């Protein structure tokens, strides 16, 4: 089997999804080839001639190799200003390449100007005309080469983001035209979300041989013949681990799928009914010991929706030998200064916290299970231990009002010296959310693959008003604007652990 991670995603760490699948397939006796088409297509794009006239683009093109090399050195991250210039210049080259091919392109996103990844008709257009895709010259050659000696292979494409959908369907269309005996399988987070949509009717029947929703290990093993018998760690063999844009290898690892809380209103994990499937902490540490020895990473990135308290305790007692970061829920453990100091000693550089709101009424209405007094103690304990925090806030939920949004502003300001980074988002209503039936929904999106729906906010706190509040009030507060300026552009939380701890 050939497993492909398609463009476009941030090219800063290897793809965990296909590595996890490869580990299971290889561990059960099946050969497979991994292709990080995102990384390979990125460098292929940069090798093309670029017709630019403005001074910035010329400078960015001239310094491209130097900036790419600098992103792989820790010295660059010691100077945030130099880092921002290097990322901006690299992204400028990518943007200009996109403009010359009728698409909006960046290091982190992709949008064809006349096609939408939310419309099956447009994705089938990409399938029918793969030669129109910006990455055609790369993937046509790559696929022909890898399939030359294995004409009857299965090809699995892992589609996790909307930015990956156009190239994924273009590759599938090319395979069906030039390698008709190859079975094309698609899975990944985006496919899972589409299949969970209550109005889902598969528009790709007859084009894509099979869609797999949810974890794909058992499904792929059954396709190849066999069934899952034992746990296998991820396998990154075959990927160019030294080419990613980071100062050393970031090793992504998922100790679980789903969410152990799974109670939050409007949460996609709840709406899609994704089960919580943890790997036992002892097995997690055994996997990491093996992977660290094999890949020698600089940083471990835990991909869990939230690292479980049991695993946090096990890591504190048995450090993996490499620095690490990931998402965690604000818990009693993290409010304990001694426990946080032990986490720091275990290598914890940063924890991402999904706070969502600084108003207790909103948190209670959303069933977040978060107490703001506890959050205050967590932020203080992590700060005292020297662990950076990346705090996620969500505005415009049905329970929020302008007054409660200002409570969030006040909470953030009070803790601004303890918050390293902020992610600010405006709420989207999942189509699959049971709670959506309790709200007045606007006219449905005409695109059949949309995952969200617009709604009339019960307090008149609609997207336009929320956006105005964020731009004109929240972000302009001096204490908050200072935090926002620290955020690494484009790479955001993926690069944040490499920066010196923010001033405390």
Instruction: Report the mean per-residue pLDDT as an integer.
Output: 93
Task: Report how far apart the termini are.
Answer: 50 Å
Radius of gyration: 23 Å
Cross-sheet strand order for the largest sheet: 8-11-12-13-14-15
Shape: globular
- The amount of beta strand, in percent, is 5-15%
> Runs with pLDDT <50, length 5+?
none
Tally of DSSP helical segments: 20
Q: Name the helicity range.
A: 40-55%
Profile the largest sheet.
6 strands, parallel
Main structural class = alpha/beta
**Total strand count, please?**
17
Characterization of this structure:
- Helices cover 40% and strands 14% of the residues.
- By secondary structure, the protein is of the alpha/beta class.
- Strands 8-11-12-13-14-15 form a 6-stranded parallel beta sheet.
- Helix 3 crosses helix 6 and helix 15 (337-345) packs across helix 17 (372-385).
- The N and C termini lie far apart (50 Å).
Name the features.
single chain; 504 residues; alpha/beta
Short description, anyone?
The chain is built from 20 helices and 17 strands. The chain is an alpha/beta fold and 504 residues long. Helix 15 packs across helix 17 (372-385).
What topology emerges from the helices and strands here?
Blueprint: E1 2-5, H1 16-27, E2 33-36, H2 37-46, H3 55-62, H4 64-70, H5 74-77, H6 80-99, E3 103-105, E4 110-112, H7 120-128, H8 136-147, E5 154-158, H9 165-178, E6 183-187, H10 189-196, E7 210-211, H11 217-224, E8 250-253, E9 256-257, H12 268-271, E10 277-278, H13 281-295, E11 299-302, H14 309-317, E12 323-328, H15 337-345, E13 348-356, H16 360-365, H17 372-385, E14 388-395, H18 402-414, E15 421-426, E16 429-430, E17 452-453, H19 463-474, H20 478-486
Parallel strand pairs: 1-2, 1-5, 5-6, 6-7, 8-11, 11-12, 12-13, 13-14, 14-15
Antiparallel strand pairs: 3-4, 9-10, 16-17
Helix pairs in contact: 3-6, 4-6, 7-9, 8-9, 13-14, 14-15, 15-17
